[in-house]
Amino acid sequence: METTKTARTRNRRGEGGRLRDEIVAAAVALLDESDDERAVTLRSVARRAGIAAPSIYAHFPDQPAIMLAVVRSGFAELEQTLRAAADSTADPVPRLLAVCRAYLDFARERPQRYRTIFGGLWKPAADASVTDDDLRGLGDGALGLLAAALADCVAVGASTCDDPGSDAVALWLGLHGLAHQRAVTRAFPGPPGIDDRMIAALARLATVIHVAPRNAGSSSD
Amino acid sequence: METTKTARTRNRRGEGGRLRDEIVAAAVALLDESDDERAVTLRSVARRAGIAAPSIYAHFPDQPAIMLAVVRSGFAELEQTLRAAADSTADPVPRLLAVCRAYLDFARERPQRYRTIFGGLWKPAADASVTDDDLRGLGDGALGLLAAALADCVAVGASTCDDPGSDAVALWLGLHGLAHQRAVTRAFPGPPGIDDRMIAALARLATVIHVAPRNAGSSSD
DNA sequence: GTGTTAGTTAACGACTGTTAGCTTAAGCCG
DNA sequence: CGGCTTAAGCTAACAGTCGTTAACTAACAC
Questions:
Q1: What is the third-level CATH fold of B9-60?
Q2: Closest Cβ–Cβ partner in A115, A172, A201 for B170
Q3: Stated pTM of the model
Q4: Which nucleotides of D are covered by protein (CB under 7 A)?
Q5: Interval B161-200: pLDDT, tens
Q6: Domain B71-203, what fold?
Q7: Any residues with CB less than 8 A from the CB of A66 and at least 6 apart, and which?
Q8: Would you call B197 and A119 a contact, using CB atoms and an 8 Å cutoff?
Q9: How far is A4 from chain B (nearest CA, A)?
C-alpha cells in the first residue's frame, strides 16, 4: 500500500523546513484513510512521506508532537471552513444554519480526523513534548464563530436565548455529539431532519426552518 | 505499579470460566486508571489479572474481543444506572431529569471508560473476531430508557415535542456531546447550568426547571 | 493411577520510538 | 573549475513492546 518508492527529491539548501509540512500532510493522509488513529505511527508517517524514520526528528521532537501538529492543522481547517460558511450570507438565521451545517459536513467528510481532533486520545504522557497547555483553547476560534452567529440571531429577535454565551456552548456541544456519533459509527444518519431539529432547539430559534432543508423533515406545510 | 504478585489461587475444576470475569475486570480497572485506551493490551491485562498472557486465549479469541467485553459490560452498567435513576421517581419531568443527570454522572465518573465505550476506536480490523455486527445496537437499551422518559413528559404535557422519537435521539446526542467533551478534556465544566439548559432545550420542556439545581443557573426567579 | 481442566514457560515474528553516526549534495569562495 | 562547509537525510542498531502459537506442568475428580 505504501510501497510507492517515488524517490523523493530532497529539499534545497535553505528549504529543509518544507519537509515539516510534508510530514504533517502524510500523517493527515494516513489518518484519513485508515480509520484508526493507531495507524499513524512515526514510522508509518515516515514511510508515507517517503523518508527515513529518523528524519522526522529534525522537525518534531516526539511522535506526539506530530499528532499535535495534525490536530492544530485540523482545527485551522475547521475554522477556515466555518468562516467561509459564515461569509456566505449576511442574513443571521441562514448564516447560523450555514455555519452549523458546515461544521457537521466537516466532521462527516473527515470522520477519523474529527475523532482524532476532538477525541483527545494521543496521550500527553508526561514525558512527551506535548504539554497540557498546548491543548488548551484549541477550538476557541470555531466556538467564537458559532457564538457570533448565534448572537446575531438574538439581536434580530430570531432566537429567544437569554444567555447567548451559554447557549453557544450548548449548541456546539449538540453539534459535537451528533458529529462525533456519526464519525464513530459511520453511517448513523439519525432520524431524518435531526440536524436542523437539534440546531433549532439549541439555538432556540423562533421561526421554523426551511432554508434548503437537506434532510427534509416530515412537515407537510 | 502492577508488580503485586498476589499468587492468584487458581480456580476449581468446573469454574475455569470465572477467570473470564476477572479478565474483564482487570481490563476495566486498567482502563479507568490509565486515561489511555492503548494501555489496555493483552499482556497488561494479563499482568493485572495476575495470570500469564496466553491464559487469556482460553476465554477470548482475540485482544479486540476483550475490548468488546469491556464495552458490553460498560453499556450494561450504564443501562442499569439509568434504570435505577428512572425508578427513583414517578413524576415524569423529574424522572427525565434524573435519567439525564445519571447519564452525565456516569460519564463524569468514568471518563476513560465512557470514551472507550462510545469512542469506537479499538479497531474491528477485518481479521479480528469482533465483527461490525457485534457493535450494532449496543446503546439501544439506554436510548430506550431516555425515549420512554421523554414520552412520559410529552404525555403529561410537560414537553412540546411533536416527534418524540427524533427528539429522544436529539436529547441523547446532546447529552453525549456534553459527556464526551467532559470525558476528553477532563475538567471542562462548561458554563454553569449548562446541563439543565441543554436538557430543557432538547427535551422541549415547557416549565422552568428547579428540581435540585445542581449547577445552579443565574435565573433569579 | 488417569484423564482432564487450568494454567504455565518459552519462543516467534513483527512492530514501536529513539539514538548514533554516516552519506550525499547544495551552495559559497577562491 | 575544484574544494570545503554544512544542511538534509540516510543506514544500522538499540531496547522494548505487542499479539500469538506450541508445548509443557500442576492440581483436581474419578
A1: Arc Repressor Mutant, subunit A (1.10.10)
A2: A201
A3: 0.91
A4: 7-13, 17-23, 27-29
A5: 999 999 999 999 999 999 999 999 987 889 999 999 999 9
A6: Tetracycline Repressor; domain 2 (1.10.357)
A7: A23, A24, A27, A40, A42, A45, A56, A60
A8: no
A9: 23
